[in-house]
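User: Show me a protein chain along with its predicted structure.
Assistant: Here is one chain, sequence first, then structure tokens.
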Amino acid sequence: MIVHRDSVALEAPTRGASSAHPLAPEAGQTLEVAMGTHGPIPKRSEERRRRNKDEGPELAKAPSGAPVDLPELPEPDELWHPIARDWYLSLRESGQAAFYQPSDWAMARYAAELMSRGLSSDRPPNGQFVSALDSVMARLLTTEGDRRRARIELERKPAQQQAPAGVTAIADYRAAIGG
């Protein structure tokens, strides 16, 4: 397979071999696929000043919090490190889970298993291992930056504003401290 930025070109099978995938292109053709952006993390849609039409895929929005139609998922392994278990369980409560397919949940279990083995190891963390784990977690859109690059935004719940302390509360405070 030959990989280009923002596209993937699959080589045609050799003579006598049959194509294993029905979408495999003929010789010399390129199969275009949409990929996430590179570079700085884009701002949230409400934080952008300019509203020019984007050339990329349309922005997908989902509510934050656990999706209502979550499939039956396997429980975390009892032997997993507590951090790996918490990470896996947090995916169930995250809004991006609305976009997950069964293969994504299988990848999440795999990532949690890797994370658990790395955290439970007696050896110090290996940079290559940490990078590979981070890559798997990024593909699962676990951080806001990963979701923005994939043009997915979770709608934030509006912040509840508290009423400002009244002047009487300040007067009561001053009286209590003897001022």
